[in-house]
């Protein structure tokens, strides 16, 4: 069944992917009407997440954020599809590092680094910029999809411009090997996914008790790589700046939980500033803290 579904949808995916952006955004506006008004995709999850995260906001303010989120969510879907066939030139035009100073300084010192980011903005569009306009080989940690055919398509998309991918299961072994190599690597951790509640670091995030993966902190402390917070922010429809910020230069000197708090609070800051660009449809708070 997985294979059948994949080959049914594949021609439509590629047909959409070759369309120009202006036409894709036209379809995005139609998709918004379908997803938000007709289907109501995860509307309850989105509204509950927002109300719990912003108890100080009025019902009207929450509704405005919800509509903005669904507009952005539909654009993001179309941009994901477009990135399957997007040219190098188009990708570099649409997603740029705002200031190269930090990465240039670290690369001159030959420092391998860890990027930490969340599901904020168009977080998968920056591969070409990293590949062609920095000295770093980018590695992205990922969790495989249940459908192996769509998983292969997504991985092919992610690696088109030289980005390399690491499954979460093999990340420790591979990063230890990379530490001994001469390759200047930057490894991306998406830190706002939902871990098992019993093996997580628990903190308050957006006014709620939230489990956080230990992986970013444990790996950074073990390797003592500088941790750079990354945010991909839209500045107009379809165009993004990649912003980088030093979170921790020497992770091995930090206390337990310190790094997890740092990257969680920094992401929270961006979400509170412009909440519509975070992935509110994700069931981030489905677990309760163990007693």
List the helices and strands and how they pair.
Layout: H1 2-17, H2 21-39, H3 43-53, H4 59-82, H5 88-94, E1 95-97, H6 101-108, E2 113-117, H7 127-133, E3 137-142, H8 148-158, E4 164-167, H9 171-179, E5 185-190, E6 201-205, E7 208-212, H10 215-223, E8 227-236, E9 239-248, H11 258-273
Parallel strand pairs: 1-9, 2-5, 2-8, 3-4, 3-5
Antiparallel strand pairs: 6-7, 8-9
Helix pairs in contact: 2-4, 3-4
Number of domains: 1
What is the count of helical runs? 11
Could you give a short account of the major beta sheet?
7 strands, mixed
Low-confidence stretches: none
Return the average pLDDT rounded to an integer. 92
User: What is the rounded Rg?
Assistant: 19 Å
Instruction: Name the strands of the widest sheet in spatial order.
Output: 1-9-8-2-5-3-4
SSE succession: HHHHHEHEHEHEHEEEHEEH
Structure classification:
alpha/beta
Distance between the first and last residues' Cα: 41 Å
Number of DSSP strands?
Answer: 9
Percent strand equals: 15-25%
Percent in helix: 40-55%
Described by the principal axes of the CA atoms, the overall outline is globular
Summarize the structure.
The protein has 291 residues and is of the alpha/beta class. It contains eleven helices and nine strands.
Structure write-up:
The chain has one domain. It has helices spanning 2-17, 21-39, 43-53, 59-82, 88-94, 101-108, 127-133, 148-158, 171-179, 215-223, 258-273; strands spanning 95-97, 113-117, 137-142, 164-167, 185-190, 201-205, 208-212, 227-236, 239-248. The longest helix is centred in the N-terminal third of the chain and has 24 residues, at 59-82. It is built from eleven helices and nine strands. Helix 8 links the parallel strand 3 and strand 4.
């Amino acid at each position: 069944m997985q294979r059948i579904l994949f080959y049914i949808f594949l021609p439509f995916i590629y047909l959409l992917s070759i369309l120009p952006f202006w036409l894709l955004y036209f379809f995005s506006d139609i998709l918004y009407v379908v997803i938000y008004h007709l289907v109501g995709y995860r509307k309850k999850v989105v509204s509950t997440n927002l109300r719990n995260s912003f108890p100080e906001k009025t019902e009207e303010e929450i509704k405005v954020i919800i509509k903005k989120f669904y507009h952005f969510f539909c654009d993001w879907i179309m941009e994901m599809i477009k990135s399957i066939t997007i040219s190098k030139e188009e990708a570099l035009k649409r997603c740029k590092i705002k200031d190269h100073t930090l990465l240039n300084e670290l690369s001159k010192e030959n420092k391998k680094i860890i990027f930490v980011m969340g599901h904020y903005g168009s977080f998968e569009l920056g591969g070409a910029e990293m590949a062609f306009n920095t000295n770093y080989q980018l590695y992205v940690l990922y969790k495989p999809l249940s459908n192996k055919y769509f998983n292969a398509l997504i991985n092919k998309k992610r690696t088109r411009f030289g980005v390399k991918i690491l499954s979460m299961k093999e990340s420790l072994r591979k990063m230890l090997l990379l530490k001994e190599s001469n390759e200047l690597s930057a490894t991306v951790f998406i830190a706002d996914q939902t871990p098992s509640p019993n093996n997580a670091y628990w903190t308050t995030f957006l006014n709620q008790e939230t489990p956080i993966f230990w992986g970013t902190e444990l790996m950074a402390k073990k390797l003592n790589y500088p941790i750079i917070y990354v945010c991909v922010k839209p500045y107009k429809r379809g165009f993004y700046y990649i912003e980088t910020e030093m979170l921790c230069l020497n992770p091995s000197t930090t206390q337990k939980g310190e790094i997890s708090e740092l990257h969680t609070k920094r992401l929270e800051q961006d979400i509170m500033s412009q909440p519509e660009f975070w992935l509110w449809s994700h069931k981030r708070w489905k677990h309760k803290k163990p007693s």
